[in-house]
Amino acid sequence: MSFSGFTNDDFDVFTIDGLDERMDNLKSVIRPKLEELGRHFAPLLSNLSGDEMFPHVAKHARRTKNPPNDTWVAFANNARGYKMLPHFQIGLWETHVFIWFAIIYEAPNKMAAGKSYENSLDKIYKEIPNDYVWSGDHTKPDAVLHEQMDKKELESMFQRLQNVKKAEILCGYHISREDAVRMSPDQFIEKAESVFRNLLPLYKLA
Q1: How far apart are the first and last CA of the chain?
Q2: For residue range 88-106, what is the model confidence (pLDDT) as tens digits?
Q3: Torsion angle, CA of 196/199/204/206, rounded to 10 degrees?
Q4: Is residue 108 within 8 Å of residue 84, measured between CB atoms?
Q5: Which residues contact 93 (CB under 8 A, 6 or more apart)?
Q6: Is position 3 within any domain?
């Protein structure tokens, strides 16, 4: 395993002006680390989930003028793509690292997943750790702490996933830039692994 941990240089990539300049740095500075994390976690997630998982490092290929504000490696049980499937992610914004389980708006099985979550509301509400976060939009950096949500709010997220075309659901853990930079590579790997283990029930239910 040659993941070397995150440094301030990784986060500073998102302050570089211009699409080409930022993309060049993203490819040379961050992407190799995401590829390493992809190689490390794909076998582990395959093991945990019982599905063969494939890593997908974000290419940001469709962008023509706005430089990306975040980047990631996603894991899904399809070698061709991940957006249409429930998937896991590790990635970063300028302010933090995220470790997610995600169902985003392209996923055709959103309605069934939302129903399944609604039926398991009590269990999910009880078992997700308090310092984990929820989000309804993968394009925004902010999220709500689990301990700040009541059961009703969680239920309405699950219902929204069933009824609203653009609805998404993400659950996971944020590590602030400062903490991520302080962590050794092994500490980060260990943390990400424990987050994935805690998020596995959401994957299974979906």
Answers
A1: 31
A2: 999 999 999 999 999 999 8
A3: -120
A4: yes
A5: 14, 69, 70, 141
A6: no
Q: Is residue 162 part of a domain?
A: yes
C-alpha–C-alpha distance, residues 206 and 96, integer Å: 27
pLDDT at residue 34, as a whole number: 98
Contact indicator for 37, 59 with CB cutoff of 8 Å = no
Number of domains in the chain: 1
Cα–Cα distance, 34 to 146 (Å, whole number): 27
Which residues face 88 on adjacent strands? 75, 101
Where does 50-168 have alpha helices with state H?
Answer: 110-119, 121-127, 151-163
b/e sequence 174-202, b meaning 16+ C-beta within 10 Å: bbebeebbebeeeebbebbbebbebbbeb
The domain in which residue 148 lies consists of 8-205
pTM for this predicted structure: 0.96
Residue 186 lies in a domain: yes
In this structure, how many other beta carbons lie within 10 angstroms of the beta carbon of residue 128?
Answer: 21
CATH of the domain at 20: 3.30.930.20
Question: For residue 61, what are its two tokens?
Answer: 């290929």
Residue 1 has pLDDT above 60, yes or no: no
Paired with 90 in beta bridges are 73, 99
| Position 105 in a domain | yes
Helix (H, G, I), strand (E, B) or coil at 146: helix
Close Cβ partners of 150 (under 8 Å, ≥ 6 residues apart)? none
DSSP string, 169-202: EEEEEEEEHHHHHHS-HHHHHHHHHHHHHHHHHH
